[in-house]
């Protein structure tokens, strides 16, 4: 294991779509670490289904949301395929930051962290508890509500709300 201080972390996810909960985790990761890369995972969400938005659409929505939310312009957004630990190594990132909403998130993310540690012990996993106002927000819930024509503006950044309304029109 490395004893170096971690200065660059990756915040990975499918972000289909990015929610205010995701934005909160990204903001908090940036407060903890001087360099943050948001890693947008390609094609399949964690439930094994295809995504509602393309990889580039999801990356663009995150870039725009970061700007609209007044977050530092130095937060990078990059699509990736393959293993997360390999992507971290390519970037020189020493850690992965994940948000946790509930025990079910913890169980899933702990398994992922253990696997990542097995594959690459030098890449640390850092868990950030969700802010209480976002504990119930998930991309799948947002998509379901939006697909029924209901308002999701309190759950997603304004640019994402507009994209969802157009997508499900």
Automatic annotation (TrEMBL):
InterPro entries: Cyt_trans-like, PPAT, Rossmann-like_a/b/a_fold. Signal peptide: none annotated. Residues 11-144 form the Cytidyltransferase-like domain. The record marks 22 as: Transition state stabilizer. The keyword Cytoplasm applies. Its cofactor is Mg(2+). One of its GO terms (cellular component) is cytoplasm. Gene3D superfamilies: HUPs. Its EC number is 2.7.7.3. Substrate binds at residues 14, 46, 84, 98. It comes from the Bacteria. It holds the Pfam family CTP_transf_like. It catalyses: (R)-4'-phosphopantetheine + ATP + H(+) = 3'-dephospho-CoA + diphosphate. SUPFAM superfamilies: Nucleotidylyl transferase. Pathway: Cofactor biosynthesis; coenzyme A biosynthesis; CoA from (R)-pantothenate: step 4/5. It is found in: Cytoplasm. GO terms for biological process: coenzyme A biosynthetic process. PANTHER family: PHOSPHOPANTETHEINE ADENYLYLTRANSFERASE (PTHR21342). Reversibly transfers an adenylyl group from ATP to 4'-phosphopantetheine, yielding dephospho-CoA (dPCoA) and pyrophosphate. Homohexamer. HAMAP family: PPAT_bact (MF_00151). Belongs to the bacterial CoaD family. This is Phosphopantetheine adenylyltransferase. It comes from Thermophilibacter provencensis. The gene is coaD.
């Amino acid at each position: 294991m490395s004893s170096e201080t971690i200065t660059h972390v990756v915040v990975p996810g499918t972000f289909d779509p990015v929610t205010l909960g995701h934005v909160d985790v990204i903001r908090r990761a940036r407060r903890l670490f001087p360099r943050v890369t948001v890693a947008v995972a390609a094609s399949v969400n964690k439930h094994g289904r295809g995504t509602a938005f393309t990889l580039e659409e999801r990356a663009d929505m995150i870039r725009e949301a970061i700007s609209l939310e007044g977050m530092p312009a130095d937060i990078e957004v990059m699509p990736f395929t393959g293993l997360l630990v390999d992507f971290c190594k390519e970037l020189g990132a020493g850690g992965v930051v994940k948000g946790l909403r509930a025990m079910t998130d913890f169980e899933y993310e702990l398994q992922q962290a253990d696997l990542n540690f097995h594959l690459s012990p030098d890449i640390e996993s850092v868990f950030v508890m969700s802010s209480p106002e976002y504990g119930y927000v998930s991309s799948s819930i947002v998509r379901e509500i939006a697909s029924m024509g209901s308002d999701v503006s309190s759950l997603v950044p304004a640019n994402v709300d507009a994209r969802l309304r157009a997508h499900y029109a």
